[in-house]
Amino acid sequence: MVFSSLIFLYLFLPACAVLYFAVHGIRAKNAVLILFSLVFYAWGEPVYVLLLIAMSGVNWLFGILLGKQHKKWLLVLAVVLDLGCLAVFKYAGFLVENLNTLGLAIPVPKISLPIGISFYTFQALSYTIDVWRGKVGVQRSFWRFLLYVSLFPQLIAGPIVRYSDVEPQMEHREIDLEEIFYGATRFCMGLAKKVLLADYAGKVASQILDGTLTASATLAVWLGVLMYTFEIYFDFSGYSDMAIGLGRVFGFRYPENFRLPYIARSITDFWRRWHISLSSFFRDYVYIPLGGNRKHVYLNLAIVWTLTGLWHGASWNFVLWGFYFFVILAFERVFRKQIAKIPRPLQHVLTLLLIMLGWDLFYFTDFTRLAESFRVLFGAAGAGFVNEQTKILLVNNLPLLLLCAVGCTPLPQAIGNSFGALCADRTHEGKKQRVYVLVTYAYDLLLLVLSTIALIGSSYNAFLYFRF
Amino acid sequence: MKKLYIALLGSFLLLLFGFGAASLLDTDATVSKVENRDLAAKPEFTVASLLDGTYISKLESYYTDTFPLREQLLKANRAMNHFYYYAGAGDDNLLIIGSTSGAENGGESLSAVQKAAQGGTSAASSGGTETAPSSSAASSSASSADKPAASSAASSAAASSAAASSAASSAAAEPTVEEPPLDNPDESAATQAGNVIVVGNRAMEIPTADDEIIARYAQAVNNLAAAMGSGVRTISLITPNGGEFYSPESMHTGLHSQKDMIDRCYADMDADILKVDAYTALREHVNDYIYFRTDHHWTALGAYYAYTMFCKTAGFEAVPLEKFQKGTYENFVGSMYTFTSGYPQSETLKENPDTLDYYLPIVETHAKYYADATLTNGVPISVVYTKLDDSVSNKYLCFIGGDNPVCVIDTAADGPVCIVLKESYGNAFVPFLTSHYSRIIVIDPREFNRDGKPSLDLKAFAKEQGIDDLIVINYPYMINSTGYIRWLNRLVGMDETE
Fold first, then answer.
1. A389 in contact with B at a CB cutoff of 8 Å?
2. CA dihedral of A332, A160, A238, A200, whole degrees rounded to 10
3. What is d(CA A398, CA A357) in angstroms, rounded to the nearest whole number?
4. Could you tell me if A428 lies within 8 Å of chain B, comparing CB atoms?
5. Closest residue in A to B86 (Cα–Cα)
6. Residue A436 pLDDT class (50, 70, 90 cuts)
């Protein structure tokens, strides 16, 4: 199931919330969450829900074993099992296809990718490694461990929550109305980002980038890449917002996953702001164990970024995408001083351009089309710089473009914060605070209603006596 | 503060819960008027469909389709689209959308609308001669659901036209004319369709050339010609659509130049195939009303100019336009309006409807449509319907009743026999052929040799019918369509995909 669906919003979520707050005691509340989480997962993966449970069981068991015996081979075995599972379900087809190009003729296994496997494998893995490192205690209850892995707010698209983030909350959570209110607001904002911005931007992106690229003008393809740049940010960060918000509603505090990545001044800066839970995972569990900044740093970087690329998908363009960032990050490291002399606005512009080109690499899994897109982007192919189609596209999408652009800046947050500060005054029995809460509430409702309208609109399916 | 939070959060939850409960309890609509389609039905539960995921995905579309207040929310969505699909300042009314989205927008959900389109169609002058459409053709409004009534009326029409083949004759209910289903989704995806644009009060399709597919279309026509053998002339007519003449320049040049597509396609065809230069005739009359603004077809006038070129190529003498008796349907709002109806730009199309003129055959005609090529159980139809009532929004259906699998027109003309392979562009063209052929067999290739459709071996069929000419008429979307090419090839057992 996904958050941005009517069934989730109007059946699953209210049912879960009502039951959750109706039952007493942490055990019962945890049981409600586990039940709903498994239904949530089984909704999209009726078979692979067993894999999720099995993966949880294996890591839970290794946690206990590692707690009893601090043996390295146990850890290695657990890691091999986790990554092996990921390899089979995510990379087997890719691996075999590539072996076959080398002259082998192995039948390509047809394994469909279980939703969210990259996320929950990493969560389980981080727990087992942290138990080995003594950073977290052993979770003896299988149910609580299953709750950690399967909890539906973060199950299928992150953030990658570490066990250490939520360890105390497994056994003790307060019901704090202010937190719940914040959570609901955060959820509505995330929903709006996904449904009102990302989905519409995505339509424009695929309209342009899935068409005949050589028939498109240079500016149109740039517009397509820009729209994809917006889509992927609002989609992913919107999903993280919804996860964080839902977590708060049920008393969990998840780490922030995005901090306005498109205002970054360098790619190094960008990766501190983009999908933070993933980059910090690779930092703590791969980069630093490899030696980090202390020895063969560039080799370490190359390994981390190849893996980061591969994590995003089993296709060579993702590897290329990861390698692209390795090259830029290495360059930024070598020329740190020279780069610092570039005027700041130019630093922002250059960074954004590099990010957009990165998303172009990310978009096209087909290398022929990827190369075609680059040729059109740089004017070596296509229908000139701009044509009528492009002008109409720009007119049609002008309001959306402006809204997305503003949405990437600190402005919305600044407005919210200063309005909050205005209302923070607790004199007069908190009257101003009430205003703040009421206005926020109206805003939440508005976003929910608009998102619902857009979700219904996306099912609009006008009959066509059209093609023929 | 605590009370306030509880009140607000409680009411929020209640809102979600209330809608959720309503969505489970309300009675579900089955047809969407706004969209002209059947809504998704509740899927049947089976363990297999649960395990392979189809049950859940169908359940989701059923839930979304039957959500409370759906039609109102859709209207709100259209209002919201003023923001997402900004039409430009002043009278610009600009829109560009991908027409591949057309396929995803509804290739599978047709039947109800088709029925609605025929619902309450009225009598037509079957066996129309030079006389005016019969006044005796009372506008009977047989409902489409009312099939027995329709067919009995039709058979009485058949009887009467057989008995009295004199002047304008019988009142007949239009037979159940089924428009064809759209391309299968996978086939549409394989087709680089292009764009649909709205500029002012005109909507147009902008095809994009794919040379490889165009060459395959030419090869398909070569295959047809080869199968027909030397005794049969094969005549190809590829017509541009309105986008070629009325779109901004960059949309009919380069990869969007339909003239180039047609030229390249003709160049790839065998030398003995006759190629009709419809383009030049249409170009000359670009200031006339040769294409609709709200529909993707040409007008009968446009088809007439293509027909004059056809006559030149095929060695007939074209009938002057003045010789035809002309009739008119006002307020025709066509397919392009429907296609763009989710966007605010469509309002201008609706406010500026088209006028549809038709020209009646000058010879006596008897036409029947058949569900397959066995030519049994024919139902009489009109070559041109003159009395479609207002409930038929798609007035273009007046030409041979829309797309039928097979339609046979016997005429009083003393001439050869032909088969016409066509999509709906051919419908407005066929009536003009009645002056030259004694028998015209119109075949829609999309209706054969596919899932659930009858089979047809065109080679044997043509031999059996003793045809002289094979006419293949299409517009640029078809010559760029892998699906359509496949169906052409399958007619003569040449499907390269198998």
1. yes
2. 80
3. 22
4. no
5. A396
6. confident
How far apart CA A233 and CA A239 sit, in angstroms, is 10
Nearest to B234 by CA among B275, B276, B271, B273: B273
Which one of A8, A400, A464 makes the best mutation probe of the B interface by having the most chain B beta carbons within 10 Å?
A464
SS (H, E, C) B178-217: CCCCCCCHHHHHHCCCEEEEEECCEEEEEECCCHHHHHHH
Q: How distant is the Cα of A445 from the closest Cα of chain B, in angstroms?
A: 8
With b for 16 or more beta-carbon neighbours within 10 A and e for fewer, the A206-235 pattern comes to bbbbbbbbebbbbbbbbbbbbbbbbbbbbb
Tell whether ipTM is more than 0.95.
Answer: no
Distance CA A466, CA B14 (A): 43
Closest residue in chain A to residue B336, using alpha carbons only: A466
- Those of residues 118-177 in B touching chain A at CB distance below 8 A are none
* Side-by-side strand order, sheet with B94-98: B94-98, B194-199, B202-207
Residue A468 near chain B (CB below 8 Å): yes
Whole-angstrom Cα distance, residue A251 to residue A149? 16
Q: A400 vs B113: CB contact, 8 Å cut-off?
A: no
Percent of chain A residues topping a pLDDT of 70: 97
- The DSSP bridge pattern shows strands B417-422 and B439-443 to be parallel
Q: What is the pLDDT of residues B294-339, one digit of tens each?
A: 999 999 999 999 999 999 999 999 999 999 999 999 999 988 888 8
Cα end-to-end span (Å), chain B: 71
- The model's pTM: 0.85
Each residue's pLDDT tens digit, B51-108: 887 888 888 888 888 888 888 888 899 899 999 999 888 778 999 987 653 222 222 2
Q: Cβ of B130: how many Cβ atoms within 10 Å?
A: 14
Residue B105 in 3-state DSSP? coil
- Least confident residue range of A298-302, A464-468, B481-485: A464-468
What pLDDT does residue B149 have?
A: 31
From chain A, the residues in CB contact with B31 under 8 A are none
